[in-house]
Write a structure and sequence with these properties.
By secondary structure, the chain is an alpha+beta fold. It has a domain of 81 residues: Roll (Thiol Ester Dehydrase, Chain A), CATH 3.10.129. The protein contains 3 helices and 5 strands. It has a 5-stranded antiparallel beta sheet with strand order 1-3-4-5-2, with helices on one face. A hairpin with a 5-residue loop joins strand 4 and strand 5. It is elongated, with a radius of gyration of 18 Å.
Length: 152
């Protein structure tokens, strides 16, 4: 079962540049360190990526927001317990629009609290070209509508 989140707003230079930081305009990876001035683009050209890129943590923050807004489990809240196997497969650039999908891999009822269950899923975040930019394995706790039932 796969659930799709909506699209994010376009990742603008200002969005990428607002990520917290101090000191130089960009760090060695090309992540902006402060929000204003042409020095951001200039510093980014000298970075590892050779251009301005979003931080992976910004990408994960957008992913989380997309999934919460999409309500992939309907009215059942997403109660995060664990995120594993975080991978950043390509940089997110200014101008990118992100979308996210959650594929449910496993469901099980809690052994100690039968009114709760656990859902494990792979979340894939992609850019507007459909290219994967990150992936993670999420484990969430969910209240069951029918305690003791995997259908929840």
């Amino acid at each position: 079962m796969t659930h799709a989140g909506g699209d994010s707003p376009r990742c603008t230079v200002d969005f990428v540049a607002q990520f917290p930081g101090e000191g130089d305009a960009c760090d060695d990876a090309g992540h902006a360190r402060h929000t204003h001035g042409p020095e951001i683009e200039e510093a980014a050209r000298a970075s590892f990526f050779g251009r301005l890129v979003a931080s992976g943590w910004q990408t994960l923050g957008v992913t989380m927001r997309l999934m919460v807004e999409a309500r992939p489990l309907g009215t059942t809240p997403l109660i995060g317990l664990q995120i594993d196997d975080i991978r950043f497969t390509r940089p997110v650039l200014p101008g990118d629009t992100l979308s996210a999908e959650l594929e449910i891999l496993e469901k099980r009822v809690s052994k100690t609290a039968p009114s709760r269950g656990f859902v494990k899923g792979r979340t894939i975040t992609s850019n507007q070209k459909g290219a994967e930019v990150s992936s993670q394995l999420w484990t969430m706790m969910v209240p069951l509508r029918n305690p003791g039932s995997l259908a929840g």
